[in-house]
Specification:
Number of helices: 13
CATH architecture of the largest domain: Up-down Bundle
Order of helices and strands: EEHEHEHEHEHEEEHHHHHHHEEH
Largest sheet: 7 strands, mixed
Bound molecules: nicotinamide-adenine-dinucleotide
Low-confidence stretches: none
Strand order of the largest sheet: 1-2-9-6-5-3-4
Shape: globular
Structural class: alpha/beta
């Protein structure tokens, strides 16, 4: 088991990665407290016995799987159950699932009695490599992604790559969306992915990438927890990705893959991304997009879809779209474009996705 520390001004979160992370850490975290488990229907169906074995009779709230349930009303239902279970200030919420469960569970724990401890146990690749770390919690509201939320660090994150064995190939692809974001930021991760001699779904390969990506993110969040500066780099691909996710209904990870592709094309065209490096990044993105292909999303309404990027909370309100983009190997930068220029440029590159 490998340990990574995330140290903010107010809290230190321990992140443990390895197939033995649960066995080594979970009994100690469970013992002697009142616990509450949050999971989704798919994870519960697969891991019911494991949950019962670790948590015994602790209440388990099973949320219907899917982004469409990351809502204010689900949050209310979870908080109601926490109240009924009689949780108190020293109780712990264990969020066992993908990014949806991690985000809504983190938010519920930040709100209940003004904050109880949360332990994240991510089970999807996307959650293991990214969303369980860093303390961003949220639900969607009125069609806007993650618009209601809080920065709330988990006390501990237990990452067991063994969960990936039951993950459908398409969800592996979604996790690659966030991994390739790290390729756009970090030289070592870029080279590891670009020069891989194994299949990208090889579990040992993924485990080593999980450790690299978490270490990168923990460093960034430790220096800039509230995203006033450096943490903006973690939004590579997300401005366009969120617009695509909302309008096409594609998953978050796949939308981020498309978003990173389109934003990299734009960054090359605007001369802010070094051309040869940018082309290599685009090749990696194309390879990931070809995994578990689904019928090509309908981009015919892309101009309308991109309007949604206007309401993205990462914009600074000057009428421009602001994106974190790849600049060169291991370097990123912010690209700010007038809205019309952003839409025209992005629309032009959608054709190259065919
Ligand atoms: N907080 C953050 O910093 C952050 C970062 C990135 C993404 N996110 C959020 O994360 C969410 C996307 O996360 P996700 O892709 O994990 O989505 P998800 O939680 O919907 O999980 C994807 C699917 O995989 C299933 N699943 C999870 N683990 C499984 C396993 N071990 N075996 C079989 N099936 C399993 C789930 O039931 C679901 O159907 C989005 O809501 C996004 O906004 C948050």
């Amino acid at each position: 088991m490998k340990e990574i520390q995330l140290k903010t001004a107010t809290q230190t979160a321990k992140i443990c990665v390895g197939d033995d992370a649960l066995a080594l850490r979970l009994p100690g975290l469970i013992a002697g407290q009142q616990n509450f488990v949050l999971t989704d229907t798919n994870v519960y169906g697969l891991y019911k016995d494991t949950l019962k074995w670790y948590f015994g009779d602790a209440p388990i709230f099973v949320l219907e799987a899917g982004e469409e349930n990351k809502t204010f009303s689900s949050l209310g239902a979870i908080l109601q159950e926490m109240t009924k279970a009689g949780l108190h200030r020293t109780s712990r919420l264990f969020a066992v699932g993908g990014g949806v469960i991690g985000d809504i569970g983190g938010l519920a724990s930040s709100l209940y009695m003004r904050g109880i401890s949360c332990v994240q146990i991510p089970t999807s690749l996307l959650a293991q490599v990214d969303s369980s770390v860093g303390g961003k919690t949220a639900v969607d509201l009125n069609g806007v992604k993650n618009i209601v939320g809080a920065f709330y660090q988990p006390m501990e994150v237990l990452v067991s790559p063994a969960f990936l064995q039951t993950l459908p190939q398409r969800e592996i692809k979604c996790g690659l969306g966030e991994i390739i974001k790290y390729c756009a930021l970090d030289k070592g991760i870029f080279e590891k992915v670009a020069n891989a001699t194994c299949e990208w779904d090889n579990v040992d390969f993924l485990e080593s990438l999980i450790v690299d990506c978490i270490a990168y993110k923990a460093g960034v969040v430790s220096r800039d927890e509230k995203e006033t500066g450096e943490r903006k780099c973690l939004n590579v691909g997300h401005t366009t990705g969120h617009a695509i996710e909302l309008s096409t209904g594609l998953s978050h990870g796949e939308s981020v893959l498309y978003g990173t592709y389109l934003e990299t094309c734009l960054a090359i065209e605007k001369g802010v991304c070094e051309k040869e490096y940018g082309k290599k990044l685009l090749c990696i993105l194309k390879k990931a997009l070809a995994i578990a292909p689904v019928s090509k999303p309908d981009f015919s309404g892309i101009e309308i879809d991109l309007q949604k990027a206007k309401s993205d909370k990462k914009n600074v309100g000057d009428g421009k779209i602001q994106m974190a983009v790849a600049k060169a190997l291991g370097e990123w930068t912010l690209l700010s474009l007038p809205f019309d220029e952003y839409v025209a440029g992005t629309t032009q590159f959608v054709a190259s996705l065919a």
